[in-house]
Amino acid sequence: MRSFLILFILLALAACSSEQEKAPASAESDSVPVLSGNSVPSKTILTSNIEYLRLRSVPGPQGDILDNLERGASLEYLGEMSSFNTEVTLRGITFKEPWIKVKTTSGTEGWVFAGALNFKLDNSSSLPEQLMDIRLKSLFGESLAASMKDYRKGYVSAKTDLELGTQYENVNSLKEQAANKMESFIRVGNSQEVPDLFWLEEAMPAIQPQLVAEGTAYDLFHDYASWRSRASKTSGKEDDVFFDLCIALYSLDSIEYYWPVYFLQTWDYGGHSELGAGKHEMLLRKMDETIRSAPSFAPQIEEMKHALVEDILGPNVTYWNKQEAILQEMDSILLDPPAILTESDLIALKQRKKQFEDPAANALSLNNRDIPQEG
């Protein structure tokens, strides 16, 4: 009986051992199978966007380190991607992405984490689109990722000025949603290097991420030079003249920001109107010309005009320039009013001009250029 019990225990242990051997390998083990990529018709080049990117012998963080790659290292895709994703936090963003088999410029082959790569959506292979889909869905969610993909396709395929205008209108709400979502997955700290978001410009053409709020967050802005370049390739001229106006509004670098060229930012969260420098009048007249040449963009131009007029009339506006310069520009605007100004605009501007004649009595702050600035 005792011998039978010993034999039974040995058989049970053997069965348990057999089950452990059949269990699937861990996603981070060296023996994880990989999915073959599509055939590569031409070289697909990927770029490291971090310092010391680890080139490993097998996919996953347990692979032996073959090399530490510098930021900007050029890597050739070898047609294989891991069948699993790994979570890795890189400079404030947690990526959940696969591993890619690559070859360095020195000829060393190995695996790198996809979240540390930049890539061009250039149709060199299916990989960049696959990686972008994975990244956008992981960070932004299925719905936003799909909207971003639709926008990208529409932007690239637009053939007429009105088609491009539709994409411009559609992306305004999209970039706001995307920027709000970015607040939940990007952590920017004083002690860490800021994230590399070059890939986001590939995902949303003509939209550029910028650090804001004293370098503690990101927001998304139009890159009007890119819009203007794209407009030059469509039929029709309405988009060309509209984006010329946009560039005039943000003439410093053609990148949209919270404040156009007629406002002087003197600290992170504010500044002063530059009324008196001639910028308001110049832009009003350019808006007037543009709305006649590009009537399809009239709603956007009207919004621009409203914001500019508010920079003159707003109850909390302070002014950078001296009284004499301000009155001179107001006179020039009112003497020959641009047609884009409505009757109510003109009445309000005439009233404000009278207030500028006695700023102290009307609690208007002028000539802030001679007042020491805080911040």
Report on this structure.
With 375 residues, this protein is α+β, with helices and mostly antiparallel strands. Among the domains are: 34-121, SH3 Domains (SH3 type barrels, Roll), CATH 2.30.30; 258-375, no CATH class. It is 43% helix and 18% strand. Strands 1, 2, 5, 8, 9 and 10 form a 6-stranded antiparallel β-sheet that branches. A two-stranded antiparallel sheet has the order 3-4. The protein has a two-stranded antiparallel sheet with strand order 6-7. Helix 7 packs antiparallel against helix 8 (279-293) and helix 8 runs antiparallel to helix 9 (298-313). Residues 1-41 have low confidence and may be disordered.
Structural class: alpha+beta
Helix content: 40-55%
Mean pLDDT, as a whole number?
Answer: 89
What is the rounded distance between the termini?
Answer: 90 Å
How many strand segments?
Answer: 14
Q: For the report, how would you describe the main beta sheet?
A: 6 strands, antiparallel
Secondary structure tally, helices = 11
Strand content: 15-25%
Determine the oligomeric state from the structure: single chain
- The outline comes out as elongated
CA-atom Rg in angstroms? 29 Å
- Which consecutive residue ranges, at least 5 long each, have pLDDT under 50? 1-41
Helix-strand pattern: HEEEEEEEEEEHHHHEEHHEEHHHH
Write the topology of this structure.
Blueprint: H1 2-22, E1 34-36, E2 45-48, E3 53-56, E4 65-69, E5 74-82, E6 86-90, E7 93-97, E8 99-103, E9 109-113, E10 117-119, H2 127-140, H3 142-157, H4 161-185, H5 198-203, E11 207-212, E12 217-222, H6 224-231, H7 238-249, E13 263-267, E14 270-273, H8 279-293, H9 298-313, H10 323-335, H11 343-357
Antiparallel strand pairs: 1-5, 2-5, 2-10, 3-4, 5-8, 6-7, 8-9, 11-12, 13-14
